[in-house]
Design brief:
Length: about 120
């Protein structure tokens, strides 16, 4: 079981940057693939990015490629999402996700609002 707490959200203008962090507790973090998802008002939750347990592999949704970077520090039990060149359509609640042998855990989410 992994407990996840996101932070770093806020209100920014289009073109600005934000760095989201997810602090994880539990002994399975280093063996878990970690991801970020987001949910905009009235829309379904969607995949943003994922990083493998070692950090050696990453996958991004097409709409964030070249703008967002996912990273992790297994010594600190954290995963981050660096978001650059933010757009109003990036406005959403961002959720951290841990996947360990088919078992998912979610954080409570952090709000990101991008004004035009």
């Amino acid at each position: 079981q992994v407990q996840l707490v996101e932070s770093g959200g806020g209100l920014v203008q289009a073109g600005d940057s934000l760095r989201l962090s997810c602090a994880a507790s539990g002994r399975t973090f280093g063996s878990s693939a970690m991801g970020w998802f987001r949910q905009a008002p009235g829309k379904e939750r969607e995949f943003v990015a994922v990083i493998s347990d070692s950090g050696g592999s990453t996958i991004y949704a097409d709409f964030v490629k070249g703008r967002f970077t996912i990273s992790r520090d297994n010594a600190k039990n954290t995963v981050c999402l660096q978001m650059n060149s933010l757009k109003p359509e990036d406005t959403a609640v961002y959720y951290c996700n841990a996947l360990y042998f088919g078992v998912e855990n979610w954080g409570q989410g952090t709000q990101v609002t991008v004004s035009s």
